[in-house]
Amino acid sequence: MTGTCDLKILSGSANVDLAEAICGHIGCRLTPVLREQFSDGEIRIEIGDNVRGDDVFVVQPTCSPVNYHLMELCLMIDALKRASARRITAVVPYYGYARQDRKVVPRVPISAKLVADFLSVAGMHRLMTIDLHAGQIQGFFNCPVDNLFAAPVFLDYFRDLGDELVVVSPDAGGVERARAYAKRMDAGLAIVDKRRDAPNQAKAMNLIGNVRGKTAIVLDDMVDTAGTMCAAGQVLAENGANKVFACATHPVLSGPAIERLDKSVFSQILVTDTIPLDVRKRTCQKIKVLSVAELLSRAIMNVHGETSVSVLFV
């Protein structure tokens, strides 16, 4: 794949800043792409450079508006396929629809699988993503999937706190992730028992573990409406935690999330730039954004150079 096969990086409209930051780390320019929308809502895509025989990486998280960005990504992949790109890797830092990965009630779709089919039929040869909500989604693809972890981006920051730390999972499903962080930081582990009453509504109930006198870090893969996270933070404060931090890879931040985080007990909310923050979301002074651009640039260079990507896994 190396030799005469040039590396090209393209970006959809979802997160151009991240794509440019990746190019800055690699030392290349962002390949121009014409992205327009017709008056009826249809999307027009035109690749600005020749990509014949090239190794192409398309940076496009499928964040809000999810359906628009997903369709834009599929059209870009199709354009690259028809332009004879040698390999097309979709770099999707945030994989939308990942929470719909199985049938939990009758007569519902498995949306995460359908999105995988969209990308595959469009012509994608490889997927690169970060902290999939459900790791088994990798099995929905019949091509290589690199599910990177944002842990290296967060770990150095938390090690510098210097306090006695305890990593907290806001629900039972996130225990494995929290345990991995706790092990690497030599920190304690706690779990908040969560009872979900309705979609996007959750109630944190009991704390399993000891946080008294410690700095607690509530860890999750994403923060959406922030109901679960803020409820968990409140439980930790009530159980004697000195400081409470929140940490989530994907800042979805929909609905009342910003208002909830502003009023929360958290000293700081750590997120990454897998999803860009709009002007309203940037008004929350507690949110600190760490970049995954270097992590993605290293993964892209390893894939392009046909070397191991697993060395980046934590």
Can you lay out the helices and strands and say which pair or pack?
Layout: E1 7-11, H1 16-26, E2 33-37, E3 43-47, E4 55-59, H2 66-82, E5 87-92, H3 111-122, E6 126-130, E7 145-148, H4 151-159, E8 165-169, H5 175-185, E9 188-198, E10 201-208, E11 215-223, H6 227-238, E12 243-251, H7 257-262, E13 268-272, E14 287-290, H8 293-304
Parallel strand pairs: 1-4, 4-5, 5-6, 6-7, 8-9, 8-11, 11-12, 12-13, 13-14
Antiparallel strand pairs: 2-3, 9-10
Give a quick rundown of the structure.
The chain has 314 residues and is an alpha/beta fold. The protein folds into two domains: 7-148, Rossmann fold, CATH 3.40.50; 151-290, Rossmann fold (3-Layer(aba) Sandwich), CATH 3.40.50.
Written account of the structure:
With 314 residues, this protein is α/β, with parallel strands linked by helices. It folds into two domains: 7-148, Rossmann fold, CATH 3.40.50; 151-290, Rossmann fold, CATH 3.40.50. Helices cover 29% and strands 27% of the residues. It has eight helices and 14 strands. The protein has helices at residues 16-26, 66-82, 111-122, 151-159, 175-185, 227-238, 257-262, 293-304; strands at residues 7-11, 33-37, 43-47, 55-59, 87-92, 126-130, 145-148, 165-169, 188-198, 201-208, 215-223, 243-251, 268-272, 287-290. The strands form three sheets. A seven-stranded mixed beta sheet has the order 10-9-8-11-12-13-14, with helices on both faces. A five-stranded parallel beta sheet has the order 1-4-5-6-7, with helices on both faces. It has a two-stranded antiparallel sheet with strand order 2-3. Strand 12, helix 7 (257-262) and strand 13 form a beta-alpha-beta unit. Helix 1 packs across helix 8 and helix 2 packs parallel to helix 3. The chain is globular and about 60 Å long.
